[in-house]
Amino acid sequence: MYSSSAAKCDQWIPIAPATDGLLAMALMTIIIENGWTDEAFMKQKTVAPFLVKESDGKYLRLSDLGQAEAGSDADAIVVTDGSGTYGESRMVFYPVNCIHCENPSCVDA
Q: N or C: less crowded end of the chain, CB within 10 Å?
């Protein structure tokens, strides 16, 4: 099949059907490990500050840390500023940039 964008590429990577997600994840790993990310964009425009549990792939909640009862209103999703500090997503507009923001105009991320 001909593709005008593929015609201009230097390399073609033949992947098996339904494995394009694996290729994307591999490329993301290389980008992150080599520090080729745009950190300002990641902090302000993505869910990168949200912590994900390896056990089930769901967002880390305060109940997972023993700081709230599971399913309660206080059981908020946890975000990080990348230096080990964490807070609740409802407290911030840009989770990484203002992890302790108390501004009432902030929205739940």
A: N
